[in-house]
């Protein structure tokens, strides 16, 4: 896969080591030369819209915001925006030609809410939590926590929030978890959160008989359900195939129900994923009820 096609799948941001492992050093250098990647900090690269957004924010005397700001902070996202997202004061008029190149959010920002030409980390998380769909906001919040942003700051801000979108922000803050490995897994967890009776925890270590020792993406220990975000990153050869086959065989042999979902279904067909999860939970609950003593 070409790096330009790979970056959206990786969340718009990736480390040098990951890009080299999935492609090659030559492919990385070619992508940088062609402008398909930009360096955001040491050893980390992002989609070119990060720099374009900063330049356009300067043009309209605004600030990069929402998903574009998340990318500028080096956080991974569910969907890379087609054009940079820029916040401008409510009384600002934008030239029609420029409007075609940006997605405008009219809002008055205080000096304490910005950092350079982008909203600062906390403001970015608050805006995303208030304005974005739950799965997109959760993916960004998970990435921020994974990157070291204090969860206590996010939750305190959410609790103090009032006005439009504050309930949505509180929901994101309540479920944000830095243990989630990537946006793929975060979006899958967002879907699972909406399934009645399902209580999943990310990145759980499971041990058992026959030498079972695995770290599963999402786990409901009560229902003994394992949910895997089946990424193409780890399935490149026969050795990986054998490792995965043993992993799932051992889980099943130890009494776990294992569900594996592709990136395409999680990102583009969440109704299918939700239906499978709901059906599995209901079947498991019925089976448990039948074995309970009268």
UniProtKB/TrEMBL annotation:
InterPro entries: DUF559, Restrct_endonuc-II-like
Lineage: superkingdom: Bacteria
Chain ranges of the DUF559 domain: 217-275
Pfam families for the chain: DUF559 (PF04480)
Coiled-coil intervals: none
Name the UniProt record assigns to this protein: DUF559 domain-containing protein
